[in-house]
C-alpha cells in the first residue's frame, strides 16, 4: 500500500545500514538492497548499539532497515533512539510484528514505512522502490485504527521514556524486570549497592513511576515480545497498558 500523498521526490540511496539480529536474513536483505539500489556501501549490524556505533563521520547512511526485535531493545524505543540520532534519514522497519497498533505507532513516530518479514520478494522490492522515490510504504490491506484518543500514555510515549534512560539505567532496568534485588544487581554490574540505589531513584523519576514494580510493569507493557499474531484489539490493550 502506497502513501502517494506523502511523496517527497526521489531520494538518492548510496549507503544503507541494515540492523537485524538474524545474520542470514541480514545478509540476504543486504544482497537485495544492493541489487535494487546499486548502493556503494551497505553495512550490517545485529544489535541497535552496534548499528548506532557504525553511524558517524565515516559512515552516514541514506537509508536504515531496522528490525524491531533486537536483543538490546525494548518495544519501539530502539526506533526512537535511532531517529533521534539521524532524524532526517528514512528508517524502514521490517518486522514479524504486524498488528495495526504497532504499525500505526511506528508511522506516527516517523517511520518511512513498514514491511512484514513474510512478504514476497516482489512486495519487498516495491517497498524499497517507493522509499527511493520518496514515498512511504505500508503493508497491503493495512487500515489505520480508528481508536479514540485517551488520557493514557501511548506506546510511543512509554517507549520514549525508556529510550531516554542512560545505558547504565537500561541495564539496571533489565535486571529489575528479571526480578533481581539491588544486592544482586550491584554484584552483576560490579557497582556499589548505594550506586545502584541512586540509579534506580533516577530511572524511576525518568519513567514517572513510584517504585520498582511500577517500573517493571511499564517496561513490560512496552515490550513487543510475543506480540506477533495477536488481534488488533489485544494489541491495542497491550500497547496502551
TrEMBL record:
Organism: Actibacterium lipolyticum
Domain spans labelled Response regulatory: 15-132
Gene Ontology molecular function: DNA binding
HTH luxR-type domain location: 158-223
Residue numbers carrying 4-aspartylphosphate: 67
Gene: devR
Entry keyword set: DNA-binding, Phosphoprotein
SMART domains xref list: HTH_LUXR, REC
Protein name as annotated: Transcriptional regulatory protein DevR (DosR)
GO biological process, one term: phosphorelay signal transduction system
InterPro entries assigned: CheY-like_superfamily, EvgA-like, NreC/VraR/RcsB-like_REC, Sig_transdc_resp-reg_C-effctor, Sig_transdc_resp-reg_receiver, Tscrpt_reg_LuxR_C
Record field: transmembrane: none
PROSITE patterns, A to Z: HTH_LUXR_1, HTH_LUXR_2, RESPONSE_REGULATORY
Domain of life: Bacteria
